[in-house]
Amino acid sequence: MSEHMKLKAELDFLTAIERGEVVTQMTLKQRIGVSVGLINALLKRAVGKGYVKVRRAPYKRYAYYLTPQGFSEKSRLVAAYLESSIDFLRQARAQYADIFETSLRQGKGCFALAGAGELAEIAILSTLGQDVKNLIILDPVTERSDVSGVRVVRDLGGHDVDAIVMTDATNPQDSFEHLRRTYPDVSILWPALLRITPDRDELIRAHDEGRAA
């Protein structure tokens, strides 16, 4: 996860709990759009830093409260996120533009963006002025029917694409692995900012074999 996305996750987390509502971690997961594991990590860090206090509620639920230090940290994160957003937008747009320019030179013109979030909007912007023949968004879970006028589909059945371009910022590595298994004959491309490791399974296997030796 990029530093920009970490900032956003921390800011969204503090904003989600600032009113002291009784919520479950699953509720926070749905509000923020990140994994329960990340919610646990954010909560542990926030409590350890003194930003959040926790009170147990019935039915295995908890009430989370921001401390004065927590509200100060939220204000700091707002400023940091806004500054980061400008740099992130420039970086992301340049990297996606490079992906499309390179692909078009290779004769690829039909693309599916994998993920209907913020990065998809940036990727769409990066196609302006380029000779992209067809563009769709692949996202099996979103409720959106389009992003910036680009149609969202649940799968690639009936859609002929030259490449899938990763735009899932929530869990890019797992999404990449899933797409590679699901569409083994389609090229998958991604910007460097997503930090995807294409040979992750091989690295893990080599590590496990090294430990067993």
UniProtKB/TrEMBL annotation:
Name of this chain's protein: Transcriptional regulator, MarR family
Q: Which InterPro entries match?
A: WH-like_DNA-bd_sf (IPR036388), WH_DNA-bd_sf (IPR036390)
